[in-house]
Amino acid sequence: MSDPGSDTAPDTGLDPAVAGRLKRNADGLVAAIVQQHDTHEVLMLGWMDDEALHRTLSTGRGTYWSRSRQEYWVKGETSGHTQRVVEVRLDCDGDTVLVKVDQTGPACHTGADTCFDADVLLANSRDD
Q: Which among 30, 32, 26 is positioned nearest to 3, based on CA atoms?
């Protein structure tokens, strides 16, 4: 994994021009918002270091850093609920990537379609 708290690009296969634009948190990670490419539904939030982003870009499979297990994981490798990566974008601040995918099966480890299905904190309806 990348050097925690470092703003310099670690030695990975990631394009140095991309790595140089990343603003990593204290653990050397950037947030990865995962979205279904055709419906635009937000599926999950994962974390990536430079190596996970490199693997995602080079394989076309959603690859993340597990903060709890301290290891890389490829979405669907054990569950079969895979993510074929369609597009990856870097946000204007460089601290978040948007990963647009074609999700097969549920995206959430709970079995829900998305990790945002369970708790609605606010749902305003607008009468126009």
A: 26
